[in-house]
Amino acid sequence: MDPLLTLASVTAAILALVTLGYAGLCWVIPFKTCQRCAGTGHTTTRILHRPRACRRCDRGMRLRLGRRVYNVFHRLRTEAHR
Domain extents for the chain? Predict the structure, then answer.
């Protein structure tokens, strides 16, 4: 067997496994904790000021990027079949 062909097939298999794993994660657990507020839903911009709602998430959880992409394609497909 050609070593380059073996390397290419192993690389393709690893990439497919990682992609399918992330897709499964986005399907089972679509939300992740917000990195800006660390999942609290509040941010403090200045000392001695009351905490404000996080601009990115509003409640401490955000949709994963893969799930957002899936939602866009699903919405496009649904609208196209009407």
Answer: 3-81
What distance in Å separates the CA atoms of residue 52 and residue 57, rounded to the nearest whole number?
Answer: 12
CA distance 82 to 72: 16
**CA gap 65, 60 in Å, rounded:** 16
pLDDT in tens, 9-65: 999 999 999 999 999 999 999 999 998 888 888 877 677 777 778 888 878 899 999
Q: What is the 3-state secondary structure (H, E, C) of the chain?
A: CCHHHHHHHHHHHHHHHHHHHHHHHHHHCCEEECCCCCCCCEECCCCCCCCEECCCCCCCEEECHHHHHHHHHHHHHHHHCC
pTM: 0.71
Instruction: List the one residue out of 35, 23, 33, 34 whose CA is nearest residue 67.
Output: 23
